[in-house]
Specification:
elongated, Rossmann fold, two-stranded antiparallel ribbon, about 250 residues
Length: about 250
Amino acid sequence: MAPSATYDTIGCAYSRHRRPDPRIARQLWSALGSARSVLDVGAGTGSYEPADRRVVAVDNSAVMLGQRPHDAAPGVQARADALPFADGAFDATMAIFTIHHWSDPGRGADEMRRVSRRQVVLTFDPEVHNRFWLVEEYVPAAARLESARRLSLEETVELVGAARVEVVPVPHDCIDGFGWAYWRRPEAYLDAEVRSCISMLAELPPEQVDDGIARLADDLASGAWARRHADLLDRDVVDGGYRILVAE
């Protein structure tokens, strides 16, 4: 889980822009199998928590926990590498877009295994993720950031002990505003609040982002972006490197 200060700063608008996409939700809930009790580690505002199971949420950021809906599962402020629960307390643990932020991913994975029999992790393959047009053409510093601090997919699979890896397609109208969500709606990246909810942009110094976003605005106005990426405009989904890992 990220240090609380990180998401206390960049997580302030999460409840507006990081909403669960129903197609991704269905895939995640299927991966949980028959689990009736679920611990959501790095839960944040509660995206993708199944409503038909007993859920407990854990996050290290008070700001993120404070944005959880009033009817959301109960939240506990704690670290992923020190979960305050007994061995085998849950049927499953889930970790959504969070393991790459944890200060000690190995210890966090051990803790997930300790408190549950099944682990479901939504993460991404940095090699695929960094081929995004936004990164390659406008904000290359994001690739350097991801490569410097992220585990490879193979390393994460080994860490989690995953027996199954599923591709998570990103639909063109995805409503969860993560990095690749607006791949066919590039104008969204001009919105500073949208960018504040995408860690690969929000955690960079402004001078490493602003010039690229200004060039994107110019390319959208001139039609250069649309000409260069005409092949994307007829596609419904893309592979942005997002993966569900399932261990048991």
